[in-house]
């Protein structure tokens, strides 16, 4: 069986985890947490990186930093994971969904401005499949309307837009290190902060609303409750597992990009015959091969292909159910404008196996079976 995903693993991880245990420092903000934070700050150029327990929690932290109040509105795509909406809805804000672009599956930047009201406080673009949204347009809209931008870059580690790392362009960015991501700590995430002046408050929120981090640095003689907050610190053992991958981040990225390119070249003939659609990457974007998807003609064809591949020992999966069609989405948010592409394109999209270490022979076998399905 070719699994859809195999979590990344590097041999040095066990030694790093053992080091945490032997040092009797397995809670948050140990040496490996600090190493990961520093790696992302140097690699992306962000002012501050704070490792978190998940991308969900990193986004929740950003929502608190945005000072959202009940009734405020946040513009986002409906084609995203529930965490994007939950993080803001938990502050009492209303998710306002707008349509996506059918080429990248990202939020349609041309639909954002019309959705702005006096209650709008944040734009939350989602970089689907590690392909950047049209951030120049989004940042221009945000500047003209005095809005914050929180990038959901859960799938965007090592990807760029016009040379800038995804997650570093808006006010805040959130990464995911879930086991399905390019770099994983099992469960985990990170908050990227563009403005250094926001770093201290973020640190306080992340430490249950206390200035405990300043205490450990010797900047205060005791720590106390300062602000709203929660427990967003991952174990240092999780960070140690992640750091082993960051040390070979380029190798992992190159491996995935090679797999992505192999898929694309093998399936292009089917695309040229207009039997399937292939991913589109704008010229200004460098993607990270987070996923390889194809688009079937409709949901029935997709279901048939999933079943056919499974019978041939290949696990393929669909992706998000648009949030505005879900019970909570209907209750907590609203869709602005027409749903021209969100539902239609989501029902066509099928993700093929993609992971570090996927072999050329496996990709050839998968592509042979996709071709066989369409030949029939």
In terms of topology, how is this protein built?
Blueprint: H1 12-22, H2 31-44, E1 48-52, H3 55-65, E2 73-77, H4 82-89, E3 94-98, E4 120-123, H5 135-145, E5 148-152, E6 160-161, E7 164-165, E8 172-176, E9 189-193, H6 199-206, H7 212-216, H8 236-246, H9 249-272, E10 285-286, E11 292-295, H10 299-311, H11 327-332, E12 334-335, H12 342-346, E13 349-352, H13 360-375
Helix pairs in contact: 1-8, 2-8, 3-4, 3-6, 9-13
Features:
376 residues; alpha/beta; Aspartate Aminotransferase, domain 2; Aspartate Aminotransferase, domain 1; 2 domains; eight-stranded mixed β-sheet; three-stranded antiparallel β-sheet; 13 helices; 13 strands; 38% helix; 13% strand; globular
CATH homologous superfamily caption of the largest domain:
Type I PLP-dependent aspartate aminotransferase-like (Major domain)
Q: How far apart lie the N and C ends? A: 22 Å
Helix-and-strand structural type: alpha/beta
- Helix-strand pattern, N to C? HHEHEHEEHEEEEEHHHHEEHHEHEH
In helices, the fraction of residues equals 25-40%
* Strand order, largest beta sheet: 1-9-8-5-4-2-3-12
Q: Look at the structure and give the CATH class of the largest domain.
A: Alpha Beta
Task: Kindly identify the CATH topology of the largest domain.
Answer: Aspartate Aminotransferase, domain 2
Q: What percentage of amino acids are in beta strands?
A: 5-15%
The parts where pLDDT drops under 50 for at least 5 residues are none
Question: What Rg, in angstroms, do the CA atoms define?
Answer: 21 Å
Spatial shape: globular
> What is the typical, i.e. mean, pLDDT?
97
